[in-house]
Amino acid sequence: MVKWTELERSTVKAIWEKVDIDEIGPQIWARVLIVYPWTERYFGSFGDLFTITAILKNDKVAAHGKVVLKALDKAVNNMDNMKRTYADLSQLHFQKLEVDPDSFRLLADCITITIACKLKSALSPQSQAIWQKFLYAVVDAMSSQYR
Amino acid sequence: MSLSGKDKAVVKNFWGKVAPKAAEIGGEALGRMLTAYPQTKTYFSHWADLSPGSAQVKKHGATIMAAVGDAVSKIDDLTGGLSTLSELHAFKLRVDPANFRILAHNLILCMAMFFPGDFTPEVHLSVDKFLQNVAFALSEKYR
């Protein structure tokens, strides 16, 4: 189980408070599909993902970005319990959706980069370190049922 | 994942905007890498101060970014153009190539931070590919 200091907890919450899920969710998801196009393999039902413009305009992409960020909210509020919080989602992504867990790492990096675009220098090096520790714990929890 | 003509044009164009802030971005990226990925500190145990903002970190970050800028100018032949740097990293510094990806992530993060409007997903894609190709060229002489 990951141990969190008071500073780490308050830093993660402070960053999360600045994230507008409806604004940033779609941006993050579009970024993942554009920068790492092989992740499109999981979204055959999303329609036109053939060009960057199409991805940026795609409503299903935007909607899915919001779904994923809402699920991240669970982690912010259950930092001491992430593996249990994400057990079902992890199993879903393994057994049913068959998602390569390496994708979770790519997503985590895109989340950090998109937040950095928004917060700019307000995301200090120390805050970035803490935020990434948090996200990698989420990635771990999401990978935990892959066995 | 080799660079298309479009990737090269995008990278050169974006670099034109980044160049005036290159030294600052390099220093910032190196400081963030050392803070967020403490395992990278093992390569700099000979420095007195590894904190972000320290003189040595800023100076070395600027050196790295200058080399990235040089790589942009040699984008049509990265393996040839970076051959000497590859020898340095392979035989003298012996940096595990996995760290090139870590540094790339922090360079990208800082470019996004300094130029949020310009660092669109399309630019991000080409820059990510470019840095991957730079890493590949730097690893060329390793074995």
Automatic annotation (TrEMBL), chain A:
Q: Where is the signal peptide?
A: none
Answer yes or no on keyword Nucleotide-binding: no
Which keywords are on file for this protein?
A: Heme, Iron, Metal-binding, Oxygen transport, Transport
Q: Is Iron included in the keywords of this UniProt record? A: yes
Q: Which GO terms describe its cellular component?
A: blood microparticle; haptoglobin-hemoglobin complex; hemoglobin complex
Q: Name one GO molecular function term.
A: organic acid binding
Q: Would you kindly state one Gene Ontology biological process term found in this protein's UniProt entry?
A: hydrogen peroxide catabolic process
Q: Which Pfam families match?
A: Globin
Domain Globin: from-to ranges: 3-147
Which family would the database say this protein is a member of?
Belongs to the globin family.
Report the protein name in the record.
Answer: Hemoglobin, beta adult 2
Automatic annotation (TrEMBL), chain B:
Q: Superkingdom, according to UniProt?
A: Eukaryota
Query: Which biological process, per GO, is one annotated for this protein?
Result: hydrogen peroxide catabolic process
UniProt KW keywords: Heme, Iron, Metal-binding, Oxygen transport, Transport
Q: Where is the Globin domain?
A: 2-143
Q: Which GO terms describe its molecular function?
A: haptoglobin binding; heme binding; iron ion binding; organic acid binding; oxygen binding; oxygen carrier activity; peroxidase activity
Q: Which family does it belong to?
A: Belongs to the globin family.
Describe its partners and assembly state.
Answer: Heterotetramer of two alpha chains and two beta chains.
Task: Sum up the protein's function in the record's words.
Answer: Involved in oxygen transport from gills to the various peripheral tissues.
Q: What is this protein called?
A: Hemoglobin subunit alpha-B
Q: Could you tell me which species this protein originates from?
A: Oreochromis niloticus (Nile tilapia)
Starting at the broadest rank, the lineage of the source organism is: Eukaryota, Metazoa, Chordata, Craniata, Vertebrata
Report the gene name. Answer: LOC109201896
